[in-house]
Amino acid sequence: MDKGVAVYQGSIPEKDFQALRRQVLSTWPTGNEVDFQEAVAYHRALPPGHNVAQALMTAKAAGKTLIQPRGGVALIDEQINLLQGLQRVGADLLPVTLDSYTRNNRYEAAESAIQESARNGRSMLNGFPIVNHGLGGCRRLTEAVDRPIVGRPGACDARLAAEISLAAGFSDFEGGPLDYFFSYSKTLTPEQVIRDWQYINRLAGSYQEQGIDMHQEQYGAITGTLVLPCLGLSVVILEGLMAAEQGVRYVGLGLGQTGCLLQDVAMLRVAPGLGRHYLDRLGYKETEVTTLLYQWMGAFPPDEAAAMGVISLAAAAAAFGKATYLISKSPHEALGIPTLEANAQGVRATRQVLGMLGNQIYPGGKELVEEMDLLERETRAIVDRALELGEGSPGLGAAQAVHAGVLDIPFSPSRVAKNRVMPLRDRTGAIRFLDSGAIPLPSDIRQFHRDRVEERISSAGGRSAYDLLVEDIYSIKTGMIG
């Protein structure tokens, strides 16, 4: 297979980076509005309370979990209304989620949708077109609120959106190359996506070198469909290492709710120590680690009361797992793009549970210790092998791991990924390997997974593993597994 471009091993050389910047900024007229030194001065002039990294470090020191919803609409005034509304109901970090046209660099189509939205009086996009609105439009968002803003691209190549977002005062541009390679691409190679995200991380690192704290939130929920914690954690650790390699000083290890409280608490407890271990091992001792939980990324219940139950369970996991922040959902998640009112309901429900559980202790005991030990061993096996394949380079190692199947994600649309891994819940609701493919697990851990899924299958009244898997994909009723 032709693996295309080569990833950078180490920080992108400044000459290469500046040449790339000229190319990226020239791809749409609003790119010409970006001036790096002017943007640094803009960040320095912002009033307190606008920086994501600083907000997270304060929360981490206080043992507090912050809340960040998701959301984006087509027009600037409506996006301002959304952000101000989320701020009023208690969101700590505010989102600007990109629309699908912008995610695919289809700026002309986004421009047409903006005009149609203005004519129809409602958003015709599923997010905010950052590139089309440009620096001035995005700075209107920054100046309309007094909370930090996170750009949420959901794209394999979001370099121009990152340039405009960070220059506009946003201090986090969420995501990373592995999660978007596995989630949003059919034909791209991991090398291509890693190169584009090395650029974004180098851009954030450039701001950091000028004293502007930039946090890069990684995203391990990937496809959102029964992703085993060890796979999600391996992804965000490798992405965090890639970010640190380009000068990022604040990385967020983001993991997706599994629906099994024990497993969710275990992965949130394990994540910061493992992240710290690998950052220190590669020499990034000054890079800070935060952890976050994404509320359920799979098929959401259409019933609002059931959806609130899922949201509340995630908030409990975040509280007991001591997450620095979590990404909240709404009870309308199954129905389409949530309204401000629906998003506000999710934020308020999350806030209520966090408040009730903030000082309580999760009664984990032996089971929690065993689950944490299992997850740590699984993740170390994957990450160690990836770094070995890359001869110490996280970018090269991640790409090689994808091609070898050492890193694989269930139900990825990618034709490049091996797509051999299959998950299944065990009788307790924890997600296990039905087929671990080429994941380099120790033999005793492979046997553990086989035993746990066989126990479920044997008690399923004649239903096949396939039937059970379909049930797991479409339901989060993990407490009702027979």
Short account of what is shown:
By secondary structure, the protein is an alpha/beta fold. It is built from 18 helices and nine strands.
What does this structure look like?
Helix content is 52%, strand content 8%. The longest helix has 25 residues, at 365-389. Helix 7 (130-144) packs parallel to helix 8 (159-167), helix 10 (190-209) packs across helix 11 (229-245) and helix 12 (261-281) packs parallel to helix 15. It has 482 residues and is α/β, with parallel strands linked by helices. The protein is built from 18 helices and 9 strands. The strands form 3 sheets. It has a 5-stranded parallel beta sheet with strand order 1-7-6-5-4. The protein has a two-stranded parallel sheet with strand order 2-3. Strand 6, helix 13 (304-321) and strand 7 (325-327) form a beta-alpha-beta unit. It folds into 2 domains: 14-357, Alpha-Beta Barrel (TIM Barrel), CATH 3.20.20; 420-482, Glutamate mutase, C-terminal domain (Alpha-Beta Complex).
CATH T-level fold name of the largest domain: TIM Barrel
- CATH level-two architecture of the largest domain: Alpha-Beta Barrel
CATH class of the largest domain: Alpha Beta
Largest sheet: 5 strands, parallel
| Beta-strand segment tally | 9
Shape: globular
- N- to C-terminal separation? 44 Å
Spatial strand sequence of the major β-sheet: 1-7-6-5-4
Count of individual domains? 2
What's the alpha carbon Rg, rounded to whole Å? 21 Å
Mean residue pLDDT? 95
Count up the helices.
Answer: 18
Q: Output the helix-strand order.
A: HHHEHEHHHEHHHEHEHEHEHHHEEHH
Unreliable stretches covering 5 or more consecutive residues = none
